Amino acid sequence: MQHLKIETLRWVSDHLEMIDQRMLPAEFKYIPAYSADEMANCIRDMVVRGAPAIGVAAAYGVALEALKLKHLPSEQFHQEIAMGFEQLAKSRPTAVNLFWALNRMKGRLVSIAEKSSESIAYELLVLAKEIHEDDIRINRAMGAYGAKLLKDGDRVLTHCNAGALATAGHGTALGVIRSAVEAGKRISVIADETRPFLQGARLTAWEMVQEQIPVTLITDNMAGFMMANGEVDAVIVGADRVAANGDVANKVGTYMVAVLAQRHNIPFYVACPLSTVDLGTRSGKEIVIEERAAEEVMGFRDYQWAAQGVKIRNPAFDITAVDLITALITENGVIVNPTLEKIAGLARLNKLL
Ligand code: MRU
């Protein structure tokens, strides 16, 4: 069977195209973005989602805005691009990769501020492309470290989608699984459906089916049954933000899975690039959790099944405390029993400090 190449984001002559992840798996189509405003809408509406992919998209958002403004005189260019940064920063609050990418773009902008608007625009595009390519390389490095933690025959439960679709390619949690499969291990995946946006059912299951990696879909409330029944050997998830003490923000429901894994002595791994580590946030308590529209909980797309008038909560992420995490898998190595000191040490190696 021929694999469909998953290019989550692709630069096409003068604009960025993204797979519309709201439509998968029913429809496979690309959506273009030509400005920071359009990119911010794509991030907010979840055309593109997943922490690393959001970071790459935001970097391109800045480059697109700069290209749009490249004929403006310097002062006006700088005023308007500052607004582009603001629009992108407001798109989603939890994944730190968004702010990490914007900071990298801003750092470059400041360092070349004296150049012509046109040269700045092209240099920002080069940096966005670099961030894009780096993400794939980083995922592969993480995959190689993480694959060693899995045994031949392991049944790995994952929550949400931390795959190629959530990154520039390969994936974080699914990247570890892909790398283990490439290394010749027979790995099967148990995908939590991931209510309410169904990233597990729609995206993780789709990615695994494309590659013929055995995958079983369950609803979120079946994870405990599967673990108690001895059907899960390891859990691997991604992360949207890792606080300095090792607490992890990830898709809502992750915390529930981590508590269950501890109860059943199943290792719980978090695969995250170091750009997801936020040393400026001391613990999970300080992480802003995005609250999304009530309609997502009331039903799906046009079909609403909840009783009209009911009060709804829709936090998109939750916090898994560090003591529930067996190890963080990063591109610079695995941090077993993460602590502030171990995380800071690895981040320092990566010049994050
Ligand atoms: O709301 P989403 O779909 O953007 O949430 C995505 C997740 O929570 C992922 O697990 C996380 O971003 C890691 S992706 C490599």
Annotation keywords:
alpha/beta, 40% helix, binds 5-S-methyl-1-O-phosphono-5-thio-D-ribulose, single chain, 7-stranded mixed β-sheet, 353 residues, 4-stranded mixed β-sheet, 17% strand
How would you summarize this macromolecular structure in one to three sentences?
By secondary structure, the chain is of the alpha/beta class. The protein contains 11 helices and 16 strands.
What does this structure look like?
The chain has helices spanning 36-44, 51-68, 74-89, 96-111, 117-147, 173-182, 199-210, 223-228, 254-263, 295-298, 340-349; strands at 9-12, 15-19, 30-33, 155-158, 188-192, 215-218, 234-237, 241-243, 248-251, 268-271, 277-278, 299-300, 303-304, 317-320, 327-330, 333-336. The mean pLDDT is 96. By secondary structure, the chain is of the alpha/beta class. The structure holds 5-S-methyl-1-O-phosphono-5-thio-D-ribulose. 5-S-methyl-1-O-phosphono-5-thio-D-ribulose binds at residues 49-52, 95, 160, 162, 166-167, 172, 199, 237-240, 250-251, 316. Residues 49-52, 95, 160, 162, 166-167, 172, 199, 237-240, 250-251, 316 line the site of 5-S-methyl-1-O-phosphono-5-thio-D-ribulose.
